[in-house]
Amino acid sequence: MSKGTISISTENIFPIIKKWLYSDKDIFLRELVSNGCDAVTKIKKLESLGEADLKGDNAFKVEVICDKENGKLIISDNGIGMTAEEVDKYINQVAFSGAADFLEKYKENTDDNSQIIGHFGLGFYSAFMVADTVTIDSLSYADGAKPVKWICNGGMEYEISEGERKERGTTITLFINEDSKEFLQKYTVRAVLTKYCAFLPTEVYLKDTGEKKEEAGEDGKEPEAPKPINDTDPLWMKNPKDCTDEDYNKFYTKVFTDFNPPLFWIHLNVDYPFNLKGILYFPKYTHELNGAEGQIKLYNNQVFVADNVKEVMPEFLMLLKGTIDCPDLPLNVSRSFLQNDGYVKKISAHITKKIADKLTELYNKERDNYNSYWEDINIFIKYGCIKEDKFYDKVKDILLYKDINGKYVNLKEYFGDGESKDVYYVSDETQQVQYINMFKEQGLNAVILPNMIDTHFISFIESKEENVKFKRIDSKLSDELTENNPENADEDKAVCELFKKNLNNDELKVEVQALKNKDMPALLLLSEESRRMQDMYRPYAEKMGGMTDMFKDDFTLVLNKNNELIEKIDGLNEDDAKLVCEHIYDLALLSNKPLSAEQMTKFIERSNIIMSRIL
Q: What is the largest CA-CA distance in the chain?
């Protein structure tokens, strides 16, 4: 037996490990199981190089055993194992990476270095986050190697002696402390393994010593063999050519517990200039961007690292769902480093490019499908354009707009051969239906932009596209909606003054136009600039108790001199004229925005009065 003191450069690392090494205490299980997988990967590599003879013993696995009765959690593998010298080198000298040493030694003999997981730093010592005492029992693969046992009680001292292990591999036993007893429960351990180890490359089995062994049934059949908790060959690691649509859909449902099939997906498979694999799914997003978030799971050699690492993935891609596996990322450094790391930025840029390429391919080769996806993906694409100029440059020609006839067009198709660069749009098809009908009657077109993000998006497009201007359908009367009509300044002025008087609003802007649609007595217009200000500030105003009518002076009431009501209103008695003016104004207002509770009450009362007088 020998004794010694663990060699480290800090005065006492264990309090740091227990409290601050990882943000989540359950991470220790990921580290230890990953180390077991590394040990298996190493022995496989040595066997392939002819440096290890396993004599057919290649049923590789990692076992996690819950021993609640004795307060122990055991992680065992049948990988490469360690000698006493290796334990002293890799365990007693904290933060000396066995994986890094192995790679350095065999870098000339192997081309798949990325298959070694264990470069998370102080992985093994994360065991002391949950354990008072930790033991290692290991036997190296090397001929003539002797088993070794290592014990440490969480202080600076350890004991190392000859062990009793008979088979190649390593067993780590954690004597769980009082604050971490939940890790003796099989269901808790299963949840952690499912979270971090669901796709590890070596089969992982979970056992519980408290469970009775299954016995053969009455028919004499053997009980079913235990099943691993992980899928060692996840879909993203396969060649896209070998994957079917059914495979992608099943994987999506399994990983994200989402039973609504995705619209489409992108399979990333990059070997140069960096190693990157993954699958990005486009789910259905038919609602507002606010509150919508996907789930991008980041892996390192099939080991789960984190969800939605914004330092690696562009922010707008967080609306997607998917898996990204990149063993080259420096995951053991700070997020501030990731934000400024040039390598990480290249990965992010590449993913963005692949997304744009996929969308462009769909647009060019499957336009009908692309059109059908637009309602679900347009929020994501618009957000991406606003956040990433390079993304916009790649997709600007495939940005679609649904028009009032239900057709999907890009800006070039919308303008056609016309010289005008004005894009009329509808923000609420129900509210603005009268304006839509007017446009259709005159053969005019408008696009439908109903989402909150559209207010920002159209401003963005105007900043990028020269002379393109977006105007809501009720912000300005197109020349095609009106006709030349001899002006009668005195009559027009008299009608305007009549409305101001009966509406008791001298500040109201009123003008008279000859609309081609004779059925509409009046309409309200609001300048596009005021409209955008109103739309942008509405969410904040609503949080503060309601939207104040701060833009009311920008409304213009347009009276249609071709309408019979407007023609006859001057001949009504004073009482009837007031009723009609108020009713016409409310009808125009209804085509612009919902009436307030008070306005609606008066509108209903007035409607009843008018009907009673008719009868």
A: 116
Q: Which residues on neighbouring strands pair with residue 7, listed in sequence order? A: 93
Q: Please identify which residue in the block is written with the tokens 């001292």.
A: 157
Instruction: Kindly state the helix (H) or strand (E) to which residue 56 belongs, with its residue range.
Output: none
Instruction: Report the distance separating Cα 584 and Cα 592, nearest Å.
Output: 13
Distance from C-alpha of 392 to C-alpha of 374, rounded to nearest angstrom: 16
Contacts of 52 (CB under 8 A, 6+ apart): 43, 46, 80, 141
Each residue's pLDDT tens digit, 59-99: 899 999 999 999 999 999 999 999 999 998 888 775 444 54
Question: How many other C-beta atoms can be found within 10 angstroms of the C-beta atom of residue 439?
Answer: 22
Q: Which residues contact 121 (CB under 8 A, 6 or more apart)?
A: 95, 97, 332
**What tens digit of pLDDT does each residue of 305-318 get?**
888 777 777 888 88
- Residues 238/199, Cβ–Cβ less than 8 Å: no
Other C-beta atoms closer than 10 Å to the C-beta of 238 total: 15
**Lookup: tokens for 380:** 């994501």
For strands 509-513 and 469-472, give the pairing: unpaired
* CB-based burial, 330-360: b 16+ in 10 Å, e otherwise: ebeeeeeebeebeebeebbeebbebbbebbe
Give the tens place of pLDDT for each residue, 279-338: 999 987 655 544 456 789 989 889 888 887 777 778 888 888 999 998 877 555 555 556
Structure tokens belonging to residue 12: 């006492």
CB 520 within 8 A of CB 565: no
Instruction: Return the higher-pLDDT residue of 10 and 169.
Output: 169
Q: What is the pLDDT of residues 90-132, one digit of tens each?
A: 887 754 445 456 456 555 554 444 444 443 345 788 898 899 8
- How far apart, in Å, do the first and last CA atoms of the chain sit? 111
The rounded distance, in Å, linking the Cα atoms of 262 and 213 is 42
Q: What is the pLDDT of residue 238?
A: 95
Beta bridge partners of 173: 74, 135
Provide the whole-model pTM: 0.78
Helix (H) or strand (E) holding 39: helix 27-48
Please report the pLDDT score of residue 148 as a whole number.
97
R_g of the chain computed on alpha carbons:
35
Strand 469-472 and strand 422-426: the pairing is parallel
Q: Is 444 exposed, middle or buried (0-12, 13-18, 19+ CB in 10 A)?
A: middle
Can you tell me the distance from the alpha carbon of 563 to that of 507, in angstroms, rounded to the nearest whole number?
24
Q: Which of 132, 137, 20, 130 is nearest to 75 (CA)?
A: 137
